[in-house]
Amino acid sequence: MTDYPGQAAPRDFWALTCDPLRECGDGEVVAAIDTVSIDPGMSGWITNKRSYMPPVKPGGVMRAFGVGELVESKSDKFAVGDWVTGLTGVQTHGVFREGHLRKIDASLAPPQKFLSGLGMTGFTGFFGMSDIGQPKQGETVVVSAASGAVGSIAAQIAKAAGARVIGIAGGPDKCAYLQGELGLDHAIDYKNCNVGEALAQACPDEIDLYFDNVGGETLEAVLGLMKYQGRIVVCGAISQYDDFAGAQGPANFMSVVTHSLSLRGFTMADYMHRVPEALDWLVPAWKEGRLKMREHVVEGIEHFPDAFDMIFRGENHGKLLLKVNG
Ligand SMILES: NC(=O)c1ccc[n+]([C@@H]2O[C@H](COP(=O)([O-])OP(=O)(O)OC[C@H]3O[C@@H](n4cnc5c(N)ncnc54)[C@H](OP(=O)(O)O)[C@@H]3O)[C@@H](O)[C@H]2O)c1
After folding, report:
1. For residue 90, how far is the Cα from the chain centroid?
2. Which class in CATH covers the domain with range 120-269?
3. Mean of the pLDDT values across residues 87-102?
4. CA distances from 11 to 2, 37, 154, 220, 325 (A)
5. Which residues are 299's β-sheet partners?
6. Could you read off the pLDDT of 38-78 as tens digits, one per residue?
C-alpha cells in the first residue's frame, strides 16, 4: 500500500511481500489464514474520504475479514486448532491480540461459510432486511445487487416474511439464479433493459420497501416508484464507489419529501453485539435448505488484485472469497 486510489487502484499499487512473523506475546495467538473476504467496502479502506473506519496505513497489510486456524496460542481464550474469524488482513499468517478474533464452530459449517452467509455479509443482509426493513406479508420489496453476498440473503429474508420480492442483477445467469434457485417473484437484468421501465412493469402497485446496495441510477428509478411512506434501507452504493468525491445524489431526491419516505443507512458495526441472534436464524435456515448461499472462490493470494477488480465488474457470482493458504 503506497497511496490512496480507492477502487481505481492500479496493479502496481499492490505488493506481495514475504515478511517474518513477529513473536507471539502473552494474550496473543498465531493464525494460519485460510480464506479472506473480498468486499466492495475495501475500496473505502484505501481512500482518504471520511468513512466509518480509518484507511489502511500506506505500506501496511490490506485490511480484510478472514477465517483461519490457530497454530500457536498464548491466550487462555483460544487453543491451537481453534478456527477463528476477524479482521485478519490479506496475508497467509498473522499474530493477533485475543480480543481481535472470534471463535467459530467449524463443525457447524465449512469455515468459508463464516465469511459468506454465516459471516459479515450474511449478518448485513439479515439485520438490514429484518431489523431495519421489516418486510411484511404481501408487500412489494425490491433488492439491488440481489444475487450478491448481502443482497441474496436480504432478498430471501423478505421472501420468508411473505413479501413479493423483485431482485435486480446484472446478466441472464444471475437473474435465472434469482428466480430459479432463490425463488424470487421476478428478476430484472439491469444491464439489458431500462431499469425504470422494467420496475414500473414489475411493480404495478408501487414499492413498499427497497434494499439498496448500488445507489446511482437504480436508486433514482426506484425513488420514482416508491409508495407513500415507503422505506428504503441504504446498505451500500457500489455504483458510486469509483468516485466518492464526484458522486451525485438522485435527481428526484425530493420524492423523499413528497412521498414521506424513510431512508435509513447502517453499517454492520451497529449490530455486532447481536451476531448470535443472526446465527440462530441463519444456521438452521441454511442447514434445512430454506436459505441458499453461494460462494465464488479465487485461489491464491497472488490473485488478490484480480479479485479486488472483479467485484466492481460484477464478475463474482456469490460471496467473493480469496483462498490464501492452499
Ligand atoms: N452497510 C454495511 O455494513 C455493508 C456490509 C457489507 C456490504 N455492504 C454493501 O452491500 C453491497 C453489496 O456488497 P456484497 O459484499 O454483497 O457484494 P456482492 O453483491 O457480492 O458483489 C458486488 C456486486 O455489485 C454489483 N455491481 C458492481 N458494480 C455495480 C454497478 N456499477 N452498478 C450496479 N451494480 C454493481 C455486481 O453485481 P451485478 O452483476 O448484479 O451488477 C457485483 O457482483 C455493497 O454496496 C457493499 O458496499 C454494506
Report:
1. 17
2. alpha beta
3. 97
4. 12, 19, 33, 33, 22
5. 323
6. 999 999 898 887 788 888 988 899 999 999 999 999 999 99
Biggest distance spanned by C-alpha atoms of the chain: 63
Task: Decide: 75 and 102 in contact? Cβ < 8 Å.
Answer: no
- Using CB distances shorter than 6 Å, the residues near ligand 1 are 39-41, 121, 124, 145, 147-151, 169-171, 174, 213-214, 235-239, 266-268, 311-312, 314, 316, 319-320
Sheet holding 140-143, edge to edge: 186-189, 164-169, 140-143, 207-212, 226-234, 262-265
* Amino acid present at 139: E
Q: Which amino acid is at 199?
A: L
Nearest in space to 149 (alpha carbons), one of 224, 248, 52, 37: 37
Q: Show me where the domains of the chain are located.
A: 6-116+294-323, 120-269
- pTM score: 0.95
Q: What is the pLDDT of residue 8?
A: 74
Cα 145 to middle of ligand 1, angstroms: 6
Q: From the CA of 41, give the closest atom in ligand 1.
A: 47
Task: Using the mean position of ligand 1's atoms as its centre, give its distance from the Cα of residue 25 in Å.
Answer: 38
Superfamily of domain 6-116+294-323: Medium-chain alcohol dehydrogenases, catalytic domain (3.90.180.10)
Give the C-alpha separation, 112 to 67, whole Å.
7
Q: Which of 139, 91, 21, 138 lies closest to 324, judged by CA?
A: 91
Tell me the per-residue pLDDT of 145-165, one tens digit each, with 9 for 90 and over.
999 999 999 999 999 999 999
- Dist. CA 263 → ligand 1 center (Å): 18
Question: 230: CA distance to ligand 1 center in Å?
Answer: 22
pLDDT value at residue 261: 98
End-to-end CA distance of the chain: 24
Q: Whose CA is nearest to atom 29 of ligand 1?
A: 239
